[in-house]
Design goal:
The complex is a heterodimer of chains A (338) and B (425).
Chain A lengths: L1 H14 L3 H9 L18 H17 L4 E6 L3 E7 L2 E3 L4 E2 L2 E4 L3 E3 L4 E8 L3 E3 L4 E7 L3 E3 L4 E8 L3 E3 L8 E4 L3 E3 L4 E11 L13 H4 L8 E3 L3 E2 L4 E2 L2 E4 L3 E3 L4 E2 L3 E3 L3 E3 L4 E2 L3 E3 L3 E3 L4 E2 L3 E3 L2 E4 L4 E2 L6 E5 L2 E4 L4 E14 L1
Parallel strand pairs in A: 2-5, 3-6, 4-7, 5-7, 6-8, 7-9, 8-10, 9-11, 10-12, 11-13, 12-14, 13-15, 14-15, 16-19, 17-20, 18-21, 19-22, 20-23, 21-24, 22-25, 23-26, 24-27, 25-28, 26-29, 27-30, 28-31, 29-32, 30-33, 31-33, 32-33
Antiparallel strand pairs in A: 1-2, 15-33
Chain B lengths: L1 H34 L17 E7 L6 H9 L8 E8 L5 H11 L6 E3 L6 H11 L4 E4 L10 H6 L7 E10 L6 H23 L11 E4 H6 L10 H11 L3 E12 L5 H28 L5 H11 L4 H17 L9 H14 L2 H12 L12 H25 L16 H5 L1
Parallel strand pairs in B: 1-2, 1-4, 2-3, 5-7
Antiparallel strand pairs in B: 4-6, 5-6
Helix pairs in contact in B: 1-6, 1-11, 1-13, 6-13, 8-9, 9-10, 9-14, 11-14
The chains are: A mainly beta (338), B alpha/beta (425).
Chain lengths: 338, 425
């Protein structure tokens, strides 16, 4: 009897670890394949496009006459449709808004829900905007805070000390003033110069265009002499300094910190494992990517007209005055204009 | 007799050391994924000047799946001017050729290659297709894969880094609801990609190019002499060939793609035996060159050795188990005694034995599918199954090495049923 009890106990102890698994085999709670979004395609303006298409769908079915409409987006919402809107100082708007013409707000106003504006938009100082999509240009006055995103088909001009939330995107120019903070920006170009400045060198860009063989790589480089020229790509296993006024026809990669001197030109992409410093007036035609921080000093330029390039840095991005970047900026840390 | 016992004891200690080292490695990877800083990947980059891409799909009698993968690839989000798709009909005798031709007539991006002469097999097929390809980047998919629209961009963007020679994406089983085996393989894949490969990327080690859902630079691979057709694991071989020449192999966790895993134990046995044979063939070829390499960092070399030996370890363990039995019956298990040994055994049983399972469990949590963790105890059975067939594959590789016999390519049987693709979508 004791022997049988021991045997049963042993059998139970043996089976015990498998019981939860047997339950899972029967109930199949996590039996489906892991989810892969079969419609995913990277789009820096995704938030705005998605929001606009939802509102446009609502307008197609419910019409666009002014007033308050109860609509169903991801949950039931009240959508306010108006023509021209001037938001008084200190007032808060709590509903979704679709504005058929212009929007302007006075100081200390707030929108707690998304806003879709078809005309010009002027956001007053010290405003708080959850998210805004605009079919024309947008001007944001100082110290305004974007909680999530802002997107415009026209130019976007941001005054000092604004918090630009998760992303600010524009199909055209995006000009950002000092002391603004950001995580993702998209524009052509994204610029930190004063209006009217022209920071672009007069090089004939097409004349510089040259195909670089991917195997033309010089490895183990620690520095490039000022004023010198390299035909291929260069890779450094440590930190790397590219001297002032030098020209690199290929790509650059450093496993440490990478400093590109004033007035230097890199035709390709720039990669580093630590910080990247783009010196004053230097130009990178390709993408800039690092696991550290990127600092773009005065008048540095990334990318070129008609192309989309990126500056991606894990730990932060600092942009000094007169910087122009054609395309996309992204950081998990803090982006700031100095 | 004393000599034999000494050898048995030394071998047992060797086995323990190897197992402890692998256990530490698994634990480091698991902790890295949970607690350490994660390196960002290149998929945040937006670049309008991506390279031209040729997608190669080796196929041998793939009529069950060929239309699924071609439909998916024709929907990818990549500049059509910079993309070509080359389905490689490798000696098919079913309807594969006709299906490919039908697609080629409908879309100019599809440029088929029909092979009925020369050497059969994936490496030979890829070599011939690379001669035909015009893309700077070659991306390879097996025929049973279902690539999502963004995957070509996600892989191609990695080559913006001038040091990257090859990139591996994440493989996700699609037929997990079909049976118990598919669920076990789903767990193994999750641990292998979500934790093991990603931790190796984070730690700047040596992620493995897996031969599918991945890409490489055409000019580099052709410069290195294309694929070695004598190798069954041409993907692992490429990983080491690139690494020894200073090229980096990266893992892109966001480049996810569905695949079909075997639903029959016999098919799985053949598959894992072939992998073991191929991988161990690479181990014999690259063990010494890896140690002598001047291109790799110390940590890459160390990880490269672990990876190279990964299909030899089950054999070492199998002999270690037999060895311990022999020592036990000889009454010679008193290798070392004392409290330190007791603590060591206790610690190893607590952490070491379960280290690979921690890795799989961590992957389930990171994937947000915690119920899958409940299946972990069942991996004990697949462990024994794998041990046996990996050992057989190792023996095959040893015989290959001694006799120089020619390796024959065996295709993995497909199980695709109607609705699998739709289920994934």
């Amino acid at each position: 009897m004791i022997l049988l009890a021991c045997f049963l106990l042993l059998a139970l102890l043996f089976v015990l670890p498998f019981l939860p698994g047997i339950r899972e085999f029967i109930k199949k709670e996590d039996a489906s394949p892991l989810y892969i979004n079969m419609n995913y395609s990277k789009d820096p303006r995704f938030f705005a496009r998605s929001f606009k298409s939802k509102i446009q769908e609502v307008l197609r079915t419910a019409g666009d006459h002014t007033g308050i409409h109860e609509v169903m987006l991801s949950k039931p919402e009240s959508l306010v449709i108006e023509n021209n809107v001037l938001v008084a100082a200190g007032s808060r708007k709590r509903n979704l808004h679709y504005i058929k013409e212009r929007l302007s707000t006075e100081a200390h106003a707030a929108f707690e829900q998304e806003v879709y504006v078809c005309g010009e938009t002027i956001i007053g100082a010290d405003n708080e905007i959850r998210a805004l999509a605009c079919e024309a240009s947008v001007r944001i006055l100082p110290r305004t805070k974007i909680l999530r995103w802002l997107d415009a088909e026209g130019d976007v001009e941001v005054a000092e000390a604004c918090d630009l939330g998760i992303s600010v995107t524009s199909a055209r120019k995006l000009r950002v003033a000092p002391r603004c903070t950001f995580r993702r920006l998209y524009g052509f170009p994204i610029s930190t110069g004063e209006p009217g400045e022209d920071n672009f060198p007069s090089w004939d860009l097409q004349a510089d265009e040259k195909q670089v063989d991917c195997t033309m790589i010089e490895r183990g480089v620690r520095s490039v002499e000022p004023g010198s020229s390299k035909d291929g790509s260069i890779i450094s296993d440590k930190s790397l300094t590219i001297g002032e006024q030098s020209r690199i026809m290929g790509h650059v990669k450093a496993h440490g910190t990478l400093r590109i001197g004033a007035g230097a030109i890199v035709r390709g992409n720039v990669f580093a494992e630590k910080d990247i410093i783009l010196g004053p007036g230097c130009r990178v035609f390709g993408t800039v990517f690092t696991q550290g921080k990127v600092t773009c000093e005065r008048n540095a330029v990334v990318g070129m007209e008609g192309k989309v390039k990126s500056v991606v840095a894990k730990k932060g991005i600092e942009l000094q005055q007169g910087v122009n970047i054609y395309g996309f900026i992204s950081t998990e840390g803090e982006g700031i204009v100095l | 007799m004393e000599m034999v016992v000494s050898i048995l004891k030394i071998y047992l200690i060797f086995t323990i050391v190897i197992m402890v080292l692998y256990a530490i490695r698994h634990l480091i990877f698991t902790f890295n994924r949970f607690f350490a800083e994660q390196r960002i990947y290149y998929n945040d980059i937006i670049n309008s000047d991506l390279e031209t891409v040729s997608v190669l799909i080796p196929m041998h009698n793939e009529e069950k799946v060929v239309d699924h993968i071609l439909d998916q690839l024709l929907n990818v989000d990549y500049d059509p001017e910079k993309l070509e798709i080359i389905p490689i009909n490798d000696f098919s005798s079913d309807g594969t050729k006709e299906i490919i031709e039908r697609y080629a007539q409908q879309d100019a991006r599809i440029r088929p290659l029909h092979r009925y002469e020369g050497e059969r097999g994936k490496p030979a097929a890829l070599n011939e297709a690379m001669g035909l390809a015009t893309g700077e980047i070659i991306i390879v998919f097996d025929a049973d894969y279902l690539p999502p629209p963004g995957i070509i961009k996600n892989i191609a963007i990695s080559f913006s880094d001038p040091e990257v020679g090859a990139v591996m994406g994440r493989v996700v089983p699609v037929n997990t609801r079909s049976n118990v085996l598919a669920r076990f393989l789903d767990l193994e894949r999750a641990g292998g990609y979500q934790v093991d490969q990603q931790a190796r990327y984070n730690l700047k080690l040596l992620p493995q190019y897996g031969g599918t859902v991945g890409g490489f630079r055409r000019c580099v691979v052709m410069d290195l002499g294309s694929f070695d057709t004598a190798m069954l694991a041409e993907d692992t071989e490429l990983t080491y060939r690139l690494a020894l020449k200073g090229w980096k192999v990266l893992y892109a966790n966001r480049a996810e793609c569905y695949e079909e895993v075997p639903e029959s134990w016999a098919v799985r046995a053949r598959q894992i035996r072939r992998w073991s044979r191929g991988h161990n063939g690479v181990m014999f070829k690259y063990f010494l060159p890896l140690l002598r390499s001047t291109e790799l960092t110390f940590r890459e070399k160390f990880d490269g050795l672990f990876l190279l030996l990964v299909y030899a370890v089950p054999v070492i363990l199998l002999f270690g188990l037999l060895d311990s039995l022999a020592l036990f019956f000889l009454g010679e298990m008193n290798i070392y005694s004392g409290v330190a040994m007791l603590l060591f055994v206790g610690a190893y049983n607590t952490f070491g034995n379960f280290a690979p399972f921690y890795q799989v469990g961590a992957a389930c949590l990171l994937d947000g599918t915690p119920q899958r963790i409940l299946l972990l105890p069942f991996l004990l059975f697949t462990f024994v199954f794998n041990l046996w067939y990996v050992a057989k594959g190792f023996l095959d590789a040893v015989i290959d090495l001694i006799t120089f016999r020619k390796r024959k390519w065996h295709k993995t049987e497909r199980f695709r049923k109607n609705g699998v693709k739709e289920g994934a979508a």
